[in-house]
Model the fold of this input.
Amino acid sequence: MARRLTATEKGKGILIETDQPLIKRIKAPRLDNEALIREHSRTLIGQTTNNQEQRIWSLIQSLPRKWSIQGRVEGVDIGNDCFQFKFEKEEDLQKVLDNRPYHFNYWMVLLQRWEPVISATFLSQIPFWIEIKGLPLHYWHDLMVCNIGDELGTREKHELTSRTARVRVAIDGLKPLVKETIIEFDSGEEARITLEYKRLENHCSFCQRLSHLSSHCPTRREAESITKRLGSEYRRMRYPNTTKKNPHIRVAKSKRQS
Done:
């Protein structure tokens, strides 16, 4: 009679190691980091929106040439498609912030003042001047323009003249741009408003994100795939007796063999 195998010999109870990386949690010590906070108080943190088209070191060399500042500035690649600029003078840093948004190689750049916070959403704000088009003339009012800005993001300021209504808003650059909005009035009426972003460079005209063109849009490809699948299912339901190669050629039913 053959010997029975043990559980170990059968492989039961053996823990199989996986290739998943081990993530270890480390408790940070209490630190007096006031000196480090002061050291980085005149620092801007930036991030590219398209890492395939924007090379960090080229950006670090090119961007300061657009600023016309007086003091020194030092740029460093800090990884994860991010970079930092440390300024010698506060007025130079503020001048750069006031003249945002910036772009490099025809793609937008996220640029914010450094803050001593740890947040996955910290580096996301990008300010735009947004021109409001289609607003009814009898609602051409400062309060109306400010209300639109507040709904889009963090409103910084606005301008309203007899010809132009625009608002400067810091929006989340990691989310799709809002190009249209419907204003609902107390009268029950509605108006479709168009929003035009000034100094906006390459972006996706389909999903309105800053990170790619419509030709590389995953949302567009998914939508086209769904539309194609639904179209095929509709044709099969509408023309059940057609060939696969040519849906307009009907297949004759064969006579039953005697």
